[in-house]
Amino acid sequence: VNNTPTVTAATTNTSICAGLPIVLSGSGANTYTWTGGAINGAPYFPITTSAYTVTGTNACGNSTAALSVTVFVAPNVIASVNNPTVCNGSPVIFTASGNATSYSWSGGVINNVAFTPNSSGTYTLIGGSANGCSTTAVTSVTVLITPTIQPVVTPTSVCLGSTATLSALGATGYTWTP
What we know:
The chain is mainly β. The protein has strands spanning 8-11, 15-17, 22-27, 31-34, 43-44, 50-58, 61-72, 77-81, 85-87, 92-98, 102-105, 114-115, 121-128, 134-144, 150-154, 165-169.
């Protein structure tokens, strides 16, 4: 003697950040059909907070069970730098904006505090929200190296009226005085 199934619904998490998967699982029957397009026991990416119903079926009929999943929206985060191209040794200021409740930067950067990068690179901003969701944004700084110039005179001593050749190495352009 078989009975109509007693179906239960379970999920790996009832609260998630947008873009993360959950697994919806029904039990107590032979086959399962979920609302919203979820497949029993497979990763599913809910877009909004919603209720999900599973219908479990066996040879004697079917029954349903339901659960809800809350989907939190991740914060909007914008990473910016006041001067994306600087000379070696010059400070820049990284600024985080958006609707996050907390911000943290990579590379030792502190938000809105002068920072002197050692070399060109990319800096990542992580913005977190009160519900535990986070978003990243990236900005870059190009550090131009100040040239070290080595002037060369050939020959180093000349008689009055003779010529000498002046040259320099280490830069792309030169201005001589006088």
